[in-house]
Amino acid sequence: MRLSRYFLPVLKETPAEAQIVSHRLMLRAGMIKQASAGIYSWLPLGYKVLRNIEQIVHEEQVRAGHIPMLMPTLQSADLWRESGRYDDYGQEMLRITDRHGRDMLYGPTNEELITDIFRSHVGSYKDLPLTLYHIQWKFRDEIRPRFGVMRGREFLMKDGYNFDLTKEDALHAYNRHLVSYLRTYERMGLQAIPMRADSGPIGGDDTHEFLVLAETGESEVFYDSEITDLKFGDRAIDYDSVEQCQAVLEEFTSRYARTDETHDVAEFAKVPEERRRTARGIEVGQIFYFGTKYSDAMGATVADAEGNKVPVHMGSHGIGVSRLLGAIIEASHDDNGIIWPEGVTPFHCGIVNLKQGDNEADAACDALYASLTALGLEPLYDDRSERAGAKFATMDLIGLPWRITVGPRGLKNGVVELTSRRTGESEELPPEQAIARIATIYGKATA
Length: 447
Ligand code: ATP
Ligand code: MG
Description:
This protein is an alpha+beta fold and 447 residues long. It has helices at 21-28, 44-63, 77-83, 85-88, 111-121, 167-187, 242-253, 265-268, 293-298, 321-331, 359-374, 388-398, 408-412, 431-441; strands at residues 32-36, 39-42, 67-68, 74-76, 94-97, 103-106, 130-139, 154-164, 192-196, 206-213, 219-224, 257-259, 276-291, 301-303, 309-311, 313-320, 333-334, 337-338, 349-353, 379-382, 402-406, 416-420, 426-429. The strands form 6 sheets. Strands 3, 7, 8, 9, 10, 11, 12, 13 and 16 form a 9-stranded mixed beta sheet that branches. A 5-stranded mixed beta sheet has the order 20-19-21-22-23, with helices on both faces. Strands 4-6-5 form a 3-stranded antiparallel beta sheet.
């Protein structure tokens, strides 16, 4: 993309309404625009990152054997009356009446809708296990929407639902989700710690929240510092293996890690003092096992091997897709702007032309652009007639992990400059080598 043709409405001033750094930077970098309280338009740069995050979530869900689908945002109140949650959910639910006077709602979550689909189409234990998920907009009429996309009213969530014959099978689904979530967040450059949590209005017995540590987090968390040394990394996991998923669960949840809702002072005191940590965290996901709560209420049964009708065991699992943009920025920025992890960056690298209009510099930038594009990479070429300082400031603000700077002086010596956004370190090297380096970083093969 050439910046002169893109739509990147960066702001010079720091917006007064933004209290936390991720919100400020998303506004300044022209990623979002508030449409009304807690509701945002996703401008091109923000939309690109949102799509990248969504893509990682999809890939890791499918890897774990979960099946994508799509349910609507608007739901009928009748299903929620069946589960009893139409009254329980309270004022966070946006209730709508259609022209025929029918009660509708903008879905805050989808347990009822998915259970209805299940009971309409699945009748036998032979169709289990089954895990369906979708990535869809949710609406919760939060009393205090704030922090930009972190606590919106309309927000994008991946929500998945497992259906199993037995509690044992459903707990495997729970563990499988835990494993897949660890991988998902790490691919986004985040450490999200699974913490024992409280189940809230979803209901249920077993639940973990995934928290990213950040000063601006809304949850108070307590944990054993050994946890932050754990890395899931690039392990090959057989998601069908009960033992393998169980082993990961034990490794990542055996140490003390809880939110304030479940914090147990006496238990925490057993952690050696030098390892006890109190901090703040951003909830980026949550997994639940809730047994037969919805299948009992809504009559979702299957015939077991003996032909008896039994209610299915269920769980639900959510990832805050749009909130993740804020969480990633909170975890990865400096005074000059965002620092995108390579896994989610909107463009793979920036190209800065120090002397727009200079034949040689323009030609070198065009050639770099063409080569990178041919490798399947997406560069953002700042081809505006701006001062170098302004171009650097924009690149730093929008946070592309790598920048190639091209100027007449370097070109005389056959070199361009490759700069890491994270470390600020620069290196002069021939353009072909800069291309090869970037290709390697993103796992693209050069000829
Ligand atoms: P919170 O405690 O932050 O209100 P929740 O526990 O009610 O969230 P869940 O029902 O667990 O939320 O939803 C799954 C995920 O969706 C959460 O882990 C979070 O990342 C995201 N999420 C929830 N509410 C919002 C919101 N208002 N804005 C953006 N993301 C949200
Ligand atoms: Mg939650």
